[in-house]
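Now for my pick.
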Amino acid sequence: MGSTSEVPFSQRIPLEDVRRLPIFESREEKILLASQMEVLLDKFYVHLPLKENMLGVRPVQQARLLQANVDLYPDDYSFMAALLQLLHRVA
């Protein structure tokens, strides 16, 4: 038997429409997220000095640049991609 929580195919939302939905309500929300990432990396990431020395990346500086250049990202998804790329570099 089918699950009662299953959405009929005719009522499903196409993926393209989902991708157009906003992630953030405002520019300030993006800046806040990048600011929180900066604090997280700077104050709580214990491997930060190791990553900076081994990989030659400065994630805290990159988080600051993300805040300063938030308007360079044309949509929420490009901003999130930049944020995730920053996290991937230090992982």
In short: The helical segments are 15-20, 27-44, 48-55, 59-68, 76-90.
